[in-house]
Every structure is written in C-alpha cells, then in structure tokens.
Specification:
With about 270 residues, the protein is α+β, with helices and mostly antiparallel strands. The chain has a four-stranded mixed β-sheet with strand order 3-2-1-4, with helices on one face. Strands 5-6-7 form a three-stranded antiparallel β-sheet, with helices on one face. Helix 7 packs across helix 8. The protein is elongated, with a radius of gyration of 35 Å. About 15% of the residues are buried. The chain binds zinc ion.
Length: about 270
Amino acid sequence: MCSQPVLAQPNFNKPFFLQTNASTYGMGAILSQEGEHHAVASQKPKLHPIAYYSATFTPMEWNYNIYERELLAIMKALTHWRHYLGWTKYPFTILTDHANLLYYKTPKKLDDNENQTLLKPELFINTIYPTPTETEKRQLMIIIHDHPTAGHPGRDETIRKATEIWQWVGMRQWISDYVKGCANCQQNKIITHKKKTPLYHITTNDGTLPFQQIAMDLITRLPQQAGYNAILTIMDHGCSRAAIFLPCTDNITGPGIAQLYLDHMYQWFGLPS
Ligand SMILES: [Zn+2]
C-alpha cells in the first residue's frame, strides 16, 4: 500500500481506463490499463497507472455544480490525454461517480456555452482522426520516435507506427521532415550507402615456388611480451598460403623488416620475385 506505483508504458493493444475526481477548486485524473493477470483466473487484473493529471478550475468553473465539475474533470482529462484516447482501438472506460453518470444520462439542457464547447465527444470516436495541432503532432513523435523506448526509428517505421494511431492529410511529408530534422537521428545516422572497397584479387603465376610472391603485414599494439609488442606476418600468396609470424616491436622501420626477412626467410626461400 505504501509502495509507489511504477508508471507503465501505454499499450495501444489494450483498452484504457480513465478515472476522474473533481473537488471544488480542482480535479485529478488517472489514466490506467489492465496490468498483469491475477494468479486466480477468475479475478480481474489490477489496473496499472499510465499517467496522472491534475488541474485547477478557473474561478468561473468554481461556480459549476458538482455534477458539472465532475463532467468538466472528465472533459479536461479527455482533452489532456486526447493523444492516447483519440485513436485507441478499443472503447475506453471512464470511471467516475455513478450518480454523475445518471445525471448526464438523462437529457440535459446545456445552458452554458463553455460546457458545449467542452463537449466534443466526436473527437474521441475511434475512427475519426481530428486534424492534430502542431503540438499534438510533436507529442505523437515524442511517443513513437523520440522516446528512449521508441529508439528513433527511421522515416518509414515512424510513419508506419504513426498511421496505426493517427492519420492526417500530409502526414507522410510532415513525419519525413520531422525525422530529417531530428538532431539525434542525424548524429547517429547509419550510412546506408557505405562505400565498399572492391576486393582485389591478387593474381598468381603458375608454378610459383613458396614465398616467391608474398604479402606482409604488421599486427601491432599487442601486450608487451619478452620485449615484443608486434608481429610481422609474411604470407605466401603464390603457392601455399603458408604464413610466418615473426615477433618484433611496433616502432620497427623498413630496414628492421628487411633484417627480419634476411634472418628468417632469405636463407630458406631467397628473395621474393
Ligand atoms: Zn530521431
């Protein structure tokens, strides 16, 4: 009971629950979804909070009666979480005082203009996508592109994810521009048209003797061992592909390599052609 609930990430494949409560001067709301299932299958899973919201009423709103304030709380919460609830696949459940529901189930004359503008239930019908404001578009991008769990997906993936939850005219272009302009994406851009050095095939002559045609390379920055920290590799290219490894140091110069060759190779194979 005393432990702080950890907020869960919204899951758009599960229905949302909206719990609101109004007092004289303000309101609070919790957006939640069903969490883990209980061990006892017959019991309903617990609701897990996704987000909290609170707001104070304006002095004009203080004059509303408690039913109106409860409704106002619902409308404020719906507006606040419109980016979640506006395009949810499933109907969401509003949990509020039962008495209020009864009050609004009976036809009411909404005598106040303010209330009428607040009541835009069509905004929350699943299949209708209201044209989002610039702020809402950005909020959507924060969820599906910028957020650490979203991980800055590329343009096409961002568009795909976005169309699952919202659609508006010019959406592809808007998202494309957004991703192009994302500083984080630019910094971590994976170069997809990476230049690849073509592999060069070393040609050989027929009947080449061992170590007549060779390739040499240095393996450097090795841990110091018996005064050495590098290996000169000499590979036979023309005949056997055998390799000779000679210990040396990484500050070895041309004459040093020639000396190693003379000491270890020349006596067996002579000079390479
Ligand atoms: Zn990005």
